[in-house]
Design a protein that fits this description.
4-stranded antiparallel β-sheet; about 110 residues; globular; alpha+beta; Alpha-Beta Plaits
């Protein structure tokens, strides 16, 4: 699986509406056959930063994603919303998605 984490630091005026701004991009990516996960979270330390966790079933699925029309469209408008170049971690890992954490389970 291709596992990607991206930190987006936004211009302050773009922070509140970010999830609405990326909704179409997010929905289109989640609909890709090779997409395993595409999850946005807002930083608890910086209200202008969002973290995107992405997973793709294979390198080919990741390549299809970056060559998609919705990816190109998002890359065309996002520079107007970001305050700095996003930071990224992109690695290939074993597995096909989330696993259960062995050290912690709910009580009762």
């Amino acid at each position: 699986m291709i596992f990607i984490v991206v930190k987006f630091t936004l211009k302050p005026e773009c922070s509140e509406g970010w999830l609405d701004s990326v909704r179409e991009f997010t929905e289109a990516t989640r609909a890709e056959p090779g997409n395993v996960m595409f999850e946005w979270s807002r930083s608890v330390d910086n209200p202008h930063q969002y973290v995107l966790v992405e997973g793709f079933a294979s390198p080919e699925a990741g390549e299809e994603h970056v060559n998609s029309e919705h990816f190109r469209t998002a890359m065309a408008w996002m520079p107007d919303h970001i305050a700095e170049t996003p930071q990224i971690i992109n690695v290939e890992i074993p597995g096909q998605g989330w696993s259960e954490m062995a050290e912690l389970t709910p009580r009762g």
